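Input for the complex:
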Amino acid sequence: MSRTFVGMPTFPVAAREAVADTQLRRNLGHATATIRARRTAAVGEVDDWEALRVKGAQAKDRVLADLDTYLLQLEARLTEAGATVHWARDAAEANAIVVAIAKDRIADDPTPEVVKVKSMATQEIGLNEALEAAGIHAWETDLAELIVQLGDDLPSHILVPAIHRNRAEVREIFRREMVTVGRPAPDDLTDEPARLAEAARLHLREKFLRAKVAVSGANFAVAETGTLVVVESEGNGRMCLTLPDTLISVVGIEKLIPTWEDLAVFMELLPRSSTGERMNPYTSMWTGVTSTDGRPDGPQDVHVVLVDNGRTTVLADVVGRHALRCIRCSACLNVCPVYERVGGHAYGSVYPGPIGAVLGPQLRGRQGALEQSLPYASTLCGACFDACPVRIEIPELLVHLRTKVVDDHRGGVPTPEAAARKAGAFTFTKASRLEKAQRAATAAGRLLGRRTHLTRLPWPLSAWSEARDAPAPPTENFRQWWARTRAGDAGDERGPQGEGQ
Amino acid sequence: MRVALFATCFNDTMWPSTPRAVVTLLERLGCRVDFPRAQTCCGQMFTNTGYAAESVPLVRSFVDVFGEFDAVVVPSGSCTGSVREQHAGLARRAGDQGLERAVEQLTPRVHELSEFLVDVLGVVDVGAYFPHRVTYHPTCHSLRMIRVGDRPLRLLRAVRGIDLVELPSAEECCGFGGTFAMKNPDVSVAMGSDKARHVRETRAEVLVAGDNSCLAHVGGLLSRQRAGVRPLHLAEVLASTENAPFTPEGVR
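Predicted:
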């Protein structure tokens, strides 16, 4: 019942459609402005935010530098605590592991089902679709994920996957769809947020009480103790993590942090960056199978699936690996002027926005046209880096990936752009060549007479002039003016050598 | 002090009035300005489009041309950023340690115009006169790449006759982004439209920035709208005086 991102068009094509969607522009503009203001306030009241960012980045870098050691440490602690650890190289392996466990526990139920805590990793591997294919319903229990799932829609934001919907649209989805999969929405449902939340609460409650298996991700996995951490704000996660007998957590291998003490840093960084809160409302932590006063407490059948799915490839790139520091706070989405106007769907994966533009082409490879277009889906304005709580140099990473995309295409028949760049570089390596090219510009400037602006340019420059006037070239460029007025000056004596060769 | 002007290829070719204004301004402040004619381009448009290999000869040429000067003044935030933040990395990527060292020795002496005035010359009041209603857009690379901070605004506030008004959402990108403007024209224009709207809200007659490329984008939209707003480089405002006030005729 849910859609996937497979077969998405390139970014510019999808973006063109998105910027024309007036409802989307309004919803996104309102939502991102609100979260931005909250984040700015929450970050602003911390005495030394910069020092905290540095600490967060260092903790992640420490893990990434010795990932194998930390992973084995985590596995040992989890196993000691009664959990079963599974290793998955890719999405297919991870899905197969989860499906097998779930099938074993619930295959004989009249309606086999699992409840899910919001998780990026399970979306990345397409777990819901894999479970569905095995005849198991996967119910999303996060309010926004529920909206997306009921609406047969795609998530468009890491933290707020239904950010592209407004409350009137949410009301419609609830009224139309809840009845098809469980407790219907109340007849008199309005678009008031409290009424909508109440409808979701009632709808989900019966699923929480019924489910025998829950699937979660983890925001952090503490290697030192074997503790998994889920950070959420609705309490639905707490329900999933405590009520069912079986708990399966799908965790990307970059989610590790070295010690319990490091967790304190991230519990400051994450809520302030993502929701703009001082403290996270529901933080659940568990270490394997737990008991209280000798009596079983919470799920007694605990599994952790550690997923690579491209991460070790990213790790092998000394520049690109910085993207693995990401703690999925989505601050970079909220401050990105491109994301604000386009929304998340145009990025064609569960990871939208600036971080998606650097993670996607690395995790999935650069073969697809969409992945090749993503590093260019940015003005390199740098707002993402300033907002990132773990100091990921996203603009630098984007340029790094652009270079890889260009280098991938070297050797074959050059694209028109590559040919133009080559010619350009040849022109610019010698001032004498540049001067010749510039003379053509000033000649055109003289032909244009008194016109200061051009309104129509031929392809490919028409991409500019369709909506923007272009300046007409001047009749005299700077170096001509310099030569005319300053001839004999010191600067002139160091003119280009080897003119005409 | 031997001061060199790096005009930048865009300014040299398309907006010569900007580097001319820099020469006028710096000479008025007592500097002797050289324009080494062998200069070409910092390579930013190649680097940021993914053509790192093509940029390396330009890095080499930049070091050759400007290496001996005490200060290099650049009337562009993004070209300054390209030199200071990217040249060393390009040399490293090419495996040229000698070039990397040469770049690292030179880059501390490369200054964006407002940095040079405030930090090196130590002036804020440059004796300018500009009796117009002005709003200032801090371009992204000035703001977040080379971090010029409020230097341009301090220079503008000291200009006689100026009516300086604050631009709403000033720190948000205008949508130019180099080749982004061509590769993603719809998003670029959507962002630029909002920037142009904010400019119009100020009722300024002149939009000032430290990068002519961003100004060409926002200015191109304002011009298409017949908005009656002139995009103008910071250098040209600062070069204007009572005796030699800015005139639009000087632009072409």
